[in-house]
Amino acid sequence: MLVVGESSSFEYSVALAERNPEWRVVGTSFDPLPQVTPGGPANLELRGGVDATQLGTHFGPGSFEEMIFNAPRSHTGWFAETGDLIEDVLRSGRGVVSEGGSIRFSSGGGMPGTPRLNAHWRGDPAWPIPEGFNQPTRGPYLADLQRGVIYVPRNNAGQALAIPLEKIYWYVYAAMMGGGLMF
Question: What is the SS3 assignment for 11?
Answer without folding.
Answer: helix
